[in-house]
């Protein structure tokens, strides 16, 4: 399985990853539907990047077993099963499960990799998993 | 729904405290595109002729373009425009950051600010909810401090543009600040906001921007980013940004030193991008959707101050031009002017002018509020900047701008002000750069480098040579300002050589239209004629006399790579002749009735004739 590794020290906060993600997954021009989060921290001067690292905590806390792992290794929330209780969102250690008007239930990174291609700063890179 | 647009124009009357919505029509979108073109059109159409820039009758226009806030790389520009309190003519100034996207996500493509409030207010926008709110708790605060305070009070996801004490006190080169360190710096637009008692604009939006072909746009974007990642200049420019040019400007003799008295700096190695990276670097910072990330966020330990920058212009104008010792001094001056809310270019020019008057004994320590204004005296400069921002003592004189200050001071001091049309020179000496000088002379806002930047061409075509440079500047003035119509940054094109045609493709993918390079260049010429017409309407006696270079350029350069170089009136005349010819204007540089009609500005031709500004 391949993972997307975040190197936050390289992030410039441009949000191209989020724009690309929203375009790829929802066909929307916005950064606000993305499956990845970027939070600027100023005046200290750094960016937090929130991205699923496939730790599986969400799956363990889901009360209705709506979360599974797909063929690419990504965690996926099954829409019809999800009761939108928010347990996964609150328990995610990476703060990487998102809600937006683009979807009726929460979602996380699906490992499509479109963001990696557009991150010129290489704050997001592919890495082969264990 | 019109692809590429939020859909509405927000008109705000600060006198009556009312807000209104106007639709972006397909005619406005497709015939006038957006950004600076909208500003030029609305300014000509809506401002009463001869309006006092600091009166309630002046307006501020804030416009995005069709590419602003899209996935397209570096789509991060928003343009501010008004009748300038510094020059009395057309000004627009753009900033990067994030706010252009947020405004369009809220459904607004342009804001028109009219009238004036009696008490401090800020504009609150959350999608369709627009309110004029009390800002008395923020009035008096620094620009950056106000942004942090508003984010704290409203939410971190609001995007905020602010003015500082300088804008509140009507300093004629006050700037607008956003996203920590992105500024619409030039021409004193923040003073107009100050005259309207508008401290800030805070905006949050939730609606995506409609794009005609989002799949095509994503594919096109990814292919261009792939090109950028492999471009020869990408590693350097993304690392050093504009500071990378410092050494080059020094080596070719264009860096301003001690108010443009010299053009090579002995302490160059202490102010360049490499030294900055070693000494004060914190993080690279990028504007919206920008793969270049050219901005550098820094921390000066010596002065315990954070700042975004310095950029090259600030290194030049507030560094070498003031004789500063190192990048740390420039960083603290940068932080000072950012928070006071003053353009670092014109601030540097005004201070350098004061220092030269001190050097020559025209102004004494007593005249200068007890400050020892010697080259490199950072403490004196910091104190002087505060006098300007507060309009205290001698600061009130310099708050008028360097040229107006010279006219108040008299004693033949005007010859030491390095400006065109009242707008101070950017950080490029033009003793031996005729095309760059012509670009400054004819820029439609005054001596600003972003309309056309031609030093490389000067070096390639011959630094003494005049031949072909009128046409060259004319051509550059067609291409570059289109970036500010689209709402994108010029750097991917300029610095890493993204081909121009890619922009036209992106524009068509976003809008679903069929624009062509030929059509867009013709449109750009129309806009250039329109801003020229605005100057012609607003300024008595406007023409060739207003396109002259500063007196300093006629003095021989005493030393450095351009030693002995000087400009002559014959050169100036020849440059302007070629330039006016390229635009098909008359010998005085005024647009002709015929040319205005040819570029599609019949109503402007009729108006100027009726007012007696051009012959019928």
> How many distinct folded domains of chain A?
1
Distance between the termini of chain A: 7 Å
CATH topology of the largest domain in chain B: Aldehyde Ferredoxin Oxidoreductase,  A, domain 1
CATH fold description of chain A: Alpha-Beta Plaits
Report, as a whole number of angstroms, the end-to-end distance of chain B. Answer: 42 Å
The CATH C-level class name of the largest domain in chain B: Alpha Beta
Q: Can you name the CATH architecture of chain A? A: 2-Layer Sandwich
Write a concise synopsis of the structure shown.
The complex is a heterodimer of chains A (130) and B (616). Chain A has 130 residues and is an alpha+beta fold.
Describe the structure.
The complex is a heterodimer of chains A (130) and B (616). Chain A has 130 residues and is an alpha+beta fold. Chain A is 20% helix and 20% strand. Chain A has a single domain (2-125), classed as Alpha-Beta Plaits (2-Layer Sandwich), CATH 3.30.70. Chain A has four helices and six strands; from the N terminus they run βαββαββααβ. A two-stranded antiparallel sheet of chain A has the order 1-6. The model of chain A has no long low-confidence stretch (mean pLDDT 96). Chain B is an alpha+beta fold and 616 residues long. Helix content of chain B is 41%, strand content 14%. Chain B is built from 25 helices and 17 strands. In chain B, the strands form four sheets. In chain B, strands 2-1-6-3-4-5 form a six-stranded mixed sheet. A six-stranded mixed sheet of chain B has the order 8-7-12-9-10-11, with helices on both faces. In chain B, helix 2 (35-46) crosses helix 19 and helix 7 runs antiparallel to helix 21. In chain B, 62% of the residues are buried.
């Amino acid at each position: 399985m391949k993972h997307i590794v975040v190197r936050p020290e390289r992030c410039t906060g441009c949000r191209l990853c989020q724009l690309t993600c929203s375009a790829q997954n929802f066909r929307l021009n916005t950064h606000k539907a993305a499956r990845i989060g970027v939070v600027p921290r100023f005046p200290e001067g750094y960016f937090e990047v929130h991205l699923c690292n496939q730790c599986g905590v969400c799956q363990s806390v889901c009360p209705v077993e709506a979360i599974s792992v797909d063929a690419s290794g990504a965690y996926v929330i099954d829409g019809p099963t999800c009761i939108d209780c928010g347990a996964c969102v609150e328990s995610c250690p990476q703060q990487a499960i998102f809600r937006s008007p683009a979807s009726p239930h929460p979602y996380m990174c699906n490992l499509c990799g479109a963001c990696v291609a557009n991150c010129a700063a290489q704050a997001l890179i592919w890495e082969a998993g264990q | 729904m019109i692809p590429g647009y939020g859909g509405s124009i927000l008109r705000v009357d600060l006198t009556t405290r009312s807000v209104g919505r106007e639709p972006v029509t397909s005619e406005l979108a497709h015939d006038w595109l957006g950004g600076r073109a909208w500003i030029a059109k609305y300014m000509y159409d809506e401002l009463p002729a001869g309006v006092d820039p600091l009166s309630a009758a002046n307006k501020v226009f804030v416009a995005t373009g069709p590419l602003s806030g899209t996935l397209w790389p570096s789509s991060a520009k928003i343009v501010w425009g008004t009748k300038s309190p510094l020059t009395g003519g057309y000004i627009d100034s753009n900033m990067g950051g994030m706010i252009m996207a947020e405004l369009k996500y809220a459904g607004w493509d342009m804001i028109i600010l009219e009238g004036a409030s009696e008490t401090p207010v800020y504009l609150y926008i959350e999608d369709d909810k627009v309110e004029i709110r009390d800002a008395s708790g923020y009035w008096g605060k620094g620009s950056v401090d106000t942004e942090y305070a508003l984010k704290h009070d409203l939410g971190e996801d609001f995007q905020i543009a602010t003015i500082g004490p300088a804008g509140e006190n009507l300093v004629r080169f006050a700037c607008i600040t956003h996203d920590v360190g992105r500024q619409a710096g030039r021409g004193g637009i923040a003073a107009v906001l100050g005259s309207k008692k508008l401290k800030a604009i805070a905006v949050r939006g939730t609606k995506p921007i409609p794009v005609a072909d989002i799949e095509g746009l994503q594919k096109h974007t990814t292919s261009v980013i792939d090109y950028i990642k492999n471009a020869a200049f990408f590693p350097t420019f993304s690392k050093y940004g504009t500071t990378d040019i410092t050494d080059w400007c020094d080596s070719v003799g264009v860096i301003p030193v001690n108010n443009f008295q010299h053009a090579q700096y002995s302490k160059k190695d202490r102010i360049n991008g490499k030294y900055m990276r070693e000494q004060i670097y914190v993080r690279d910072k990028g504007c919206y959707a920008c793969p270049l990330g050219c901005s550098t966020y820094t921390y000066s330990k010596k002065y315990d101050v954070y700042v975004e920058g310095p950029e090259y212009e600030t290194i030049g104008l507030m560094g070498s031009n003031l004789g500063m010792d190192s990048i740390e001094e420039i960083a603290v001056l940068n932080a000072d002017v950012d928070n006071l809310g003053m353009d670092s270019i014109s601030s540097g020019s005004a201070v350098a002018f004061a220092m030269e008057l001190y050097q020559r004994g025209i102004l004494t320590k007593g005249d200068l509020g007890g400050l020892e204004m010697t080259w490199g005296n950072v403490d004196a400069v910091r104190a002087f900047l505060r006098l300007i921002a507060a309009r205290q003592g001698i600061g009130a004189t310099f708050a008028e701008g360097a040229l107006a200050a010279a006219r108040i001071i008299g004693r033949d001091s005007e010859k030491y002000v390095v400006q065109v049309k009242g707008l101070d020179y950017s950080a490029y000496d033009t003793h031996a750069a005729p095309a760059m000088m012509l670009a400054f002379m004819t820029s439609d806002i005054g001596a600003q480098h972003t309309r056309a930047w031609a030093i490389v061409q000067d070096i390639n075509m011959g630094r003494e040579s005049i031949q072909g440079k009128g046409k060259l500047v004319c051509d550059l003035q067609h291409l570059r300002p289109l970036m500010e119509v689209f709402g994108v940054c010029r750097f991917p094109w300029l610095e890493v050589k993204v081909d121009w045609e890619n922009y036209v493709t992106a524009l068509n993918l976003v809008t679903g239209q069929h624009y062509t390079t030929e059509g867009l260049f013709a449109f750009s010429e129309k806009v250039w004629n329109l801003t020229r017409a605005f100057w012609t309407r607003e300024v008595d006696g406007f023409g060739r006399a207003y396109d002259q270079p500063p007196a300093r350029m006629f003095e021989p350069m005493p030393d450095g790579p351009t030693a002995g170089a000087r400009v002559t009136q014959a050169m100036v005349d020849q440059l302007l002749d070629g330039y006016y010819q390229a635009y098909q204007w008359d010998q005085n540089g005024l647009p002709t009735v015929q040319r205005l009609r040819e570029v599609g500005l019949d109503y402007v031709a009729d108006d100027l004739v009726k007012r007696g500004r051009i012959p019928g």
